[in-house]
Amino acid sequence: MNLLKIDHFDDKNGNGARMTIFVAGCPHKCKGCFNVVSWSYLTGYECTQDVLTCLFDKFEKDRQFLTGLSILGGEPLAPRNYEGVLDICLQFKKRFPEKDIWVWTGYTLEELKEQPQAIALSLIDTLVDGRFEESLKDTELAFRGSSNQRILKLGIDY
Ligand code: SF4
Q: Can you give the pLDDT at residue 147?
């Protein structure tokens, strides 16, 4: 799995100040996508254990200021990416059990539940789901681009 970018201090994607990872590769190809460069699985750089260790060490240094980890794309839960994302979530929760994880996906929750990616849901505290629908674009929405997308909570919605 490749990463496009890591933002070590992000206050736009999720609640509070967060560390944010952008995963490369997306199968959805939504019309009007804000991040077409993220569609290729080959862009960015490989998400090695060294990269993750650096990321977690940096999180440790800023632990008192950070609320959690956000994972966007691309499509973090694409068949080619979800095992890598699952590994990140497992390592993160082991090291920072009091912090939360937000994941943005183009799949709906209902679609995910029918696929192997469902295994990751128990580690995701907040799931922002659904493809970007250009006809439903709404720039006033928090954390979403179009009104069909939902902010779903572990233990409440799934
Ligand atoms: S799911 Fe996100 S990254 Fe993928 S095409 Fe749609 S808007 Fe773009």
A: 98
